[in-house]
Write a structure and sequence with these properties.
Blueprint (H helix, E strand, L loop, with lengths): L2 E6 L7 H8 L5 E8 L6 E9 L2 H11 L3 E2 L2 E2 L1 E4 L20
Antiparallel strand pairs: 1-3, 1-6, 2-3, 4-5
């Protein structure tokens, strides 16, 4: 079963293909994506890599976590499910008067 990994601390110039090539040293990469800021179009410095098996994912964690990549130290671990976003507007979301 495929395992998704969180990869933090990426250099901002890293591309999806560079990320995929780096993790391909550990096994078969199903997907690799750098998360981009919607407003600026720049990398947020992290991404996700999906490995084809749990064993390959563990190998990737062992090989890359805490290691230098392009002058920055990577954080690599199993990705957690995305938590629901909070509404910071306050109140009940209504815009009318009391």
């Amino acid at each position: 079963m495929a395992k998704k990994l969180y990869v933090g601390g990426l250099p901002y110039a890293t591309t999806d293909s560079e990320l995929k090539d780096a993790f391909a040293q550990c096994g078969s990469v199903t997907s690799a994506v750098i998360i981009m800021d919607k407003m600026t179009g720049r990398s947020k410095g992290f991404g996700f890599v999906e490995m084809s098996s749990d064993e390959e994912a563990q190998t990737a964690i062992d090989q890359w976590n805490g290691k230098d990549f392009g002058g920055r130290t990577l954080t690599v671990n199993e990705a957690r499910p995305m938590e629901p976003r909070r509404d910071f507007r306050g109140g009940n979301g209504g815009g009318g008067r009391w």
